Amino acid sequence: MNCLVLTKLKMNKAVFLDRDGVINKKAPEGDYIKSWGEFEFLPGVEDAIKRLNEEGFLVIVISNQRCVAKGIITEDELNEIHEKMIKELHKKGAVIHGVYYCPHDVKDHCECRKPKPGLILMAARENNVDLGQSWMIGDSISDVEAGKRAGCRTVLIGVYPAESGGKFKPNIMAVSLSGAVGEILRCLRNQDLS
Questions:
Q1: Which of 20, 76, 82, 93 is surrounded by the fewest CB atoms within 10 Å?
Q2: pLDDT single digits (tens) 93-106
Q3: CB 133 within 8 A of CB 29
Q4: Phi-psi region of 37 (alpha: psi -120 to 50; beta: other; left: phi over 0)
Q5: Known active-site residue 143
Q6: What is the arithmetic mean of pLDDT over 76-81?
Q7: How far, in Å, are 4, 9, 89, 99 from residue 82 at the CA level?
Q8: Which of 18, 76, 130, 192 is catalytic?
Q9: What stretches of 151-194 show up as alpha helix (H) in DSSP?
Q10: Residues 143-181 pLDDT 10s
Q11: Cβ distance 53 to 97 under 8 Å?
């Protein structure tokens, strides 16, 4: 008699982070971060990412980078910014496990530009992520919509009216990445108690 034993792969939990406005200070309206010299970490980001790492979350950046389609920077220049961001965070003990970005313009109607969930779904496949145990943190309703459409819980960062989001309401609202991480960890601990 033959016996087939199936082993279930351990699924990872992840926190997907938007970049501009969550990890770094946004460029002025209508402008873009075009070089490492313009990149400025927001306060508390390193510690927030480190806390997520300590709790066993993969931390993956999910970002629309239309500046590439507009010819403002090249993909090589964008990748250089991301490599330096990862190295600087790593020096402080904060680990980014991947960066996924959409280089397309709105008119391209691609599947990877948020609010579509394509980048999150790709990152989940490539990193064996259980989306039901994962979170998307962003500073816009399109981030929340992408997270919800992918099957994640969501956090909206910033100061927004309670009715923000229409049918894509965030699970949590916070003023910063540090606040968002604190609320996520509080939720997880409350689940463990119930």
A1: 76
A2: 999 999 999 999 99
A3: no
A4: alpha
A5: no
A6: 98
A7: 44, 30, 11, 7
A8: 18
A9: 177-193
A10: 999 999 999 999 999 866 555 556 789 999 999 999 999
A11: no
At 3, list the tokens.
């016996």
Instruction: Please tell me which residue in 20, 31, 47, 192 is annotated as part of the active site.
Output: 20
Q: Which residues, including other chains, have CB under 8 Å from residue 83's CB and lie 6 or more apart?
A: none
Active site residue 108: no
Query: Rounded to an integer, what distance in angstroms lies between the CA atom of residue 41 and that of residue 116?
Result: 26
Query: Is pLDDT of 39 > 60?
Result: yes
**Considering the entire predicted model, what is its pTM?**
0.91
How open is the CA angle 48-54-56, to the nearest 5 degrees? 110
Instruction: Specify the DSSP class assigned to residue 169.
Output: -
Helices H, strands E: what count in the chain? 5, 6
Whole-angstrom CA distances from 99 to 18, 166, 169 are: 10, 28, 25
Q: How far apart are CA 53 and CA 92, in angstroms?
A: 12
Strand-pairing partners, residue 153, are: 135
Q: Six-digit token pair at 153?
A: 């819980």
Which DSSP letter does residue 149 get? H
Which helix (H) or strand (E) element contains residue 98? strand 98-102
Per-residue pLDDT at 162: 53
